[in-house]
Amino acid sequence: MDTDRERHRARETAFYLFTQQSLPACKPVLTPGWVIAIFLFMGVIFIPVGLVTLRASHCVVEIVDRYDIDCVPEPSRMDKVSYIQDDSIPKNCSRFMKVHKYMKAPIYIYYQLDNYYQNHRRYVKSRSDKQLLDGQKYHDTSSCQPVESNNNRPIVPCGLIAWSLFNDTFEFIREGAELKVNRKNIAWKSDRSHKFGKNVYPFNFQNGTLIGGGKLNPEIPLSDQEDLIVWMRTSALPSFRKLYGRIEEDLDVDDVVVVNLMNNYNTYSFGGKKKLALSTSSWLGGKNDFLGHACVFAGCSSLTLAIIFMLLHVKYRRPYGDMSYLPWNRKSFSG
Amino acid sequence: MVAASSRKRKGKIRWSKLYSFAACFRPLTSKERLAARELIGQPGFSRVVFCNEPHLHKRKPYKYPYNYISTTKYNVLTFLPRALFEQFRRVANFYFLLAAIFSLFSLAPFSRASLIAPLVFVVGISMLKEAVEDWHRFLQDLDVNNRTVKTHISNGVFVDKLWKELRVGDVVKVNKGEYFPSDLLLLSSGNEDGVCYVETMNLDGETNLKIKRCLEASLCLNEDEEFSKFKATVHCEDPNPNLYTFVGNIEFGKESYPLSPSQLLLRDSKLRNTDYIYGVVIFSGHDTKAVRNSTRSPSKRSRIERKMDHIIYILFSMLVLVSLVSSFGSLLYLRQDMVDWWYLQLPDDNKVNDLDDSNSEKYDDRFFNPSKPVQSAGLQFIRALILYGYLIPISLYVSIEVVKVLQTMLINKDIELYDDVTCKSVQARTSNLNEELGQVEMILSDKTGTLTCNQMEFRKCSIAGVSYGGDITEVDLAASMRMNADFEPFEFSIDETDGATRSFEPFEFSVSSFSAQNGNARLTKTEGPVIKGFNFRDDRLTNENWIHGSNLFDITMFFRVMALCHTGIPLEDDNHKTDKLSYEAESPEEVSFLIASQEFGFQFCRRTQSLMVLREFDPSSMKEVEREYKLLNLLEFSSSRKRMSVIVSNEDGQIFLLCKGADSIIFDRLADNGRAYEQATTMHLSSYAEDGLRTLAFAYRTIEAAEYESWNTIFTQAKATIGPEREELLEQASETIEKDLILLGVVAVEDKLQKGVPECIDKLAQAGLKIWLLTGDKRETAINIGFACSLLRQDMKQFHLSLSRDAESNNQVKDMKEDILQQIESSYKMVCEERNKEAPFGLVIDGKALEIALRGDVKDEFLQLAVNCASVICCRVSPKQKALITRLVKQYTGKTTLAIGDGANDVGMIQEADIGVGISGMEGMQAVMASDFSLPQFRFLERLLIVHGHWCYQRISKMVLYFVYKNVAFGLTLFYYELYTSFSGEVLYDDWYMTMFNVMLTSLPVIALGVLEQDVSSDICLQFPALYQQGPRNVHFSWSRIIGWILNGVVSSLVIFLANIYILSPTAMRENGFVADIDSLGATTYTCIIWTVNCQIALITSHFTWIQHLSIWGSILLWYIFLLVYGALPPNFSGNAFQVLVEGIGPAPLYWMITVLVVVVSLLPYFIHIVIQRSYFPMDDHIIQEMEQCYKKYDVRDNEMWVREQRNSQRSTRIGFSARVDAKILSFNQQLQQKKLSIYRSVTNSPIYRSITTSPFS
């Protein structure tokens, strides 16, 4: 008796059930009811979510100003490239941005570059993370080609990305008073503390022949060079924004912000655009309606589908488990 | 063990004293002898063997191979190169090999490890599997090679020697029950006349024993000592695969004697009924005819796998296409724009001066060289080929291997496929063909050992016009039961209406009487001990009740024929516990007769050369008496005579001729006064035949002494004649005495089917499978079995294709071809004409006709006819023909064939078929060794195909399709991203994400799907065998499905990619103003992919156990865990993915919302598709799932509707038990209709009826 019971118990064990392929299983069958319920549910979820995100997006105030053409003086516009490459010409330029809606601090300052392939493979690979962290202690800078060394000393920081650092600068003046721009904490904290060395100084950066982009203050360690850190988080797409700083004062409607900028960066040789964007943020980030529209669209189509299936179900109802659809009951079935 | 004990038991029997009726080998005619002699020494006939001098065969030119046999594919040296070669013959593997090689030269966009590791893993696992399989083969070889045999060393001493050490020329002694180690020349045997009996079942499947006879000259060599000085030289043919020919001569002493096949003992056959033989090794090892006959087992691939190759090609062309686009795009950018992108510092001819000298010298970025744009584009092309390699599912092969091994394990472990009797279970010997089991359309089956147990049972007899042993067949019973069930409700509804329903009553009565009778029969069945070979229950005959019968004399004579007319002998049992004897005879039929006659009280107890002793039950004294019968003559059985007779005289000196034989032969030879029971007997005969019983008619005649004397002189003369005319004379002599017989009756023996065979065939037929029977047995037997298995039935139109003569000259061949062609054409015409009608067709063809029918120009017609017949039976076919038929059917119909057999004669067929199945219950492992699956019994085929085959087919096809989907969905996002990076080859995802994709993040759910998915449970599979048709019709793996899944992948990838780039850029993705960089976008997109592909598999799965849940949701969870852990590693290792989840995307609500949105939207098209399909174009499994759900609530599986549907699903069956029952019902109904009509007529004609109808009151 006992052995019987034990055997029985052994049979019941999970492994036995597994080998006999008779594990307890849930076998969901898609019934019309479920289908309609799922579609309805999706509609009910997505439409409000979409509306909420749209609202969040609409709350964001954004001012964008393209300045790359206007900041080149009229006479030089025929040959912008030589203008930008001529160090003797002062590059300062003033832009006026009108606030059309109340902007609550913090207001994020972005520069936007278009048609700039920061995601080019050659470009992306041309950096040395180890050097950024350890500085000259790390000698192997072969990954930084072609901007690798200067006078047989490795450039710190090496590589194309650092070398092409964006170097336009912006100053904001409202009603004669300078707006305070906070340029701290614009990069990831982990980047600052773990990826860029605290004792690494760009002592020989950009002092060679061809000057690419911005220069760095050799006195400041890389971990505090937030512009560089932001720049070195390469963008995914050829049109991108990067954080420049934060204005920590509210801007009122009809305020006019004067931007004094240094138009140093060369986007002219490849026809790239430069823009300046001031934007507040919501819990969802910046102004982007796409998510909201997509959600509303998905919700609406789900609802529509729910209705369509409901109608179809009412009109051409196939009884649940209808045998007449079985092959042997179907007339056309042969064989 | 068994062999040893039986040897002991039968020790005292001298088998040479046995009369044999097996056809002996015809002695060679002098002409043939001359022809053979001329051949010796010619090319092809140049072998020289020095008997008893094996040392002479150590040097050339007489160096022949050892008797070592190897069936392994590889050896230690060749394994690595050959196995690697096999692996890289797969296109996908070769591609990944190239990718790995390129990765060594910095061409690849990924790290080396991420390319090489998966390849090594995949190839390693496959090779490991090969190695293990080959190791098993090696062990089996070792087992065979290490068997021992007594071999002569010198001076008449015989010692045990391993088989593998035998050499040509060795003299060996083989004992009873042992296999011959190689092809031997029979020198002498333990019998004085130099005869030995050989069982060749492993070679040709024939179960009867064959007689081999040594030369007169070597007869004296029957002691060990004789061989000390024995020397002889054999000249014979070279090794060849022909089992039935042997040409040679032996120079022994100073004479030369010709040799014939009857002196050749073939490897793999077995010595039976002979104590020992001496033989000399003629062919050894791979030269033996048996080994020459076996072909190396081909590696089989399933249909799905072959189609998978085509899918891989499609994906390859996609790969090449997008790579071309990429490289072309890169070329355009490089030519026009890229030089202007100063931030890339590309060397430009114009600006080269601007560059630092050292920089321009060092410049070596071959991918972006503006001065050589085409070369750069070419390199980009190669890089793109590797980059988009994720379109090719590398892990598909390894996943499939893993899944198949697990499936195999589940098949092997299935308790329902375990045979308690033999303690064996089904073994899937290769894992390649699991899903092929679900697509079988045609089963080619061997008979003996597969369908039948090779055991005869005495079932019924008809004596003096009375049939004994029950009338009802199972078919009748089932038909009546079902009709009862059908009629009950019907009857009830019309019962009260009017009296006309009374006409049902006779029918009802008959049905119930059927059941009553059968109930009784069942009752008696359970009583008494089961006697092997005797399955006869009829109280009128058993327990000596026959003495109350009316025709006592005829009954007694009948039993005497049964007890005397045979060649068997009783076994002298050592322990006389019972007075029952057991018998040994040349055919199992005779044994069953002897057992039966013993049961009836006519025990055959002794036999000497001229005397047979019966212990008879004497009805007058009611006691057992021993009577002696003098055996005067024995007229042997032969396949042309189809009868055997004995002439005996009893103690009173009366001379009887007792004869048994095929009914047609006996009926032709009846005396006018001997036909008293002919009519009744004929009726019984046909009913026996319909049940698939083998029948023999019994007859006798009394001979006057004078007539006997005169005949005997003629007969002895004929016997003494030497030469070709001997046979003819004997035949004439027999004819003169075997006439004017008096018919006694017939017996019916059952070639016992294995357990569950009819039911299994029935189920398989319901599943839409065609079953062909290929047997080496003779036609009558084959047809009997056809009936017994319900492959044939009475209302079937049968076509018999046969030839009467052997083909001897070319002219005749031509005539025969015409003949056969004509037969085929006329049959086919009939098929075409009557196709619409219900009656199915059966085709019976024998080996000779088949030989012609399978020749070039006739075969198409033949196959056309055969395919249109519901069942096909081929009898007297050779192993080669079996294989040939299998191949032709496979080629002609293009359908998946399964061959099942148990003996070495089936090996060819098993290897040729798409799936070979061996029966492992019997002895002899050749079939099993060659097979892909081995079953202990035929009946397990049902579950193997209908349940496991169906499941595996569904699983593998779902799995492959999902794999394609998953890799397309993932791979294409890589391509889309290229469009945004100016085709520079940058990858959106971290290397490690990508490596993880196939290895961990998506592999487990798909393996769980492949192992555990079930559309319906196993019971329901068996209840609705018609579901199986999904496989042969290939609904789950059709091209439309494949394309659909690829499109689904394209849609998913588009949705995922576009949604991500539009939502995440260019504005901030978090409240703190951070924008998404390449790593955040990569991680987010990748998250969406992981979610989408895992949710997709959840949509496919219809059977969720905890394993599926764990694997699907666990995989998603694993991705987050991985991201967390990877992000927490120091940045030296994790690079830009450092803290990506914690700091980059995790805190952003956008990230989580994108995931939800993208998953829902990308799955929406597929979801809509399945909703529409389920609602409006449901497939069979969908409906059955729903039905199951419906009825599960009420737990009424035997619900009326359920049963009805089950029966409806069987409707289209044309063969099998159910079909037979259907046919029976039809005929019952017709009878009923007639009865009704006649009753109606009688009623309407009756005056009362007339008066009623004409009366105004009605």
From TrEMBL, chain A:
Residue ranges of the TM segments: 34-54, 290-314
Any one annotated GO CC term: Golgi apparatus
Keywords of the record: Membrane, Transmembrane, Transmembrane helix
Compartment annotation: Membrane
Name of the protein in question: ALA-interacting subunit
Claim: Magnesium is one of the keywords in the record: no
Organism: Gossypium mustelinum
Superkingdom as given in the UniProt entry: Eukaryota
Family statement: Belongs to the CDC50/LEM3 family.
From TrEMBL, chain B:
Subcellular location: Membrane
Any Pfam family hit: PhoLip_ATPase_N
Any GO CC annotation of this UniProt entry: plasma membrane
Keywords assigned by UniProt, alphabetized: ATP-binding, Magnesium, Membrane, Metal-binding, Nucleotide-binding, Translocase, Transmembrane, Transmembrane helix
GO annotation (BP), single: phospholipid translocation
EC number(s) on file: 7.6.2.1
Superkingdom of the organism of origin: Eukaryota
Root EC class: translocase
Substrates-to-products reaction catalysed: ATP + H2O + phospholipidSide 1 = ADP + phosphate + phospholipidSide 2
Chain residues that bind Mg(2+): D446, T448, D902, D906
Residue intervals of the P-type ATPase C-terminal domain: 928-1178
Cofactor(s) in the UniProt record: Mg(2+)
Entry annotation: catalytic residues: D446 (4-aspartylphosphate intermediate)
Sequence positions that bind ATP: D446, K447, T448, E590, F637, K660, R694, T775, G776, D777, R876, K882, N905, D906
Main location: membrane
Family: Belongs to the cation transport ATPase (P-type) (TC 3.A.3) family. Type IV subfamily.
NCBIfam families cross-referenced by the UniProt entry: ATPase-Plipid, ATPase_P-type
Protein name: Phospholipid-transporting ATPase
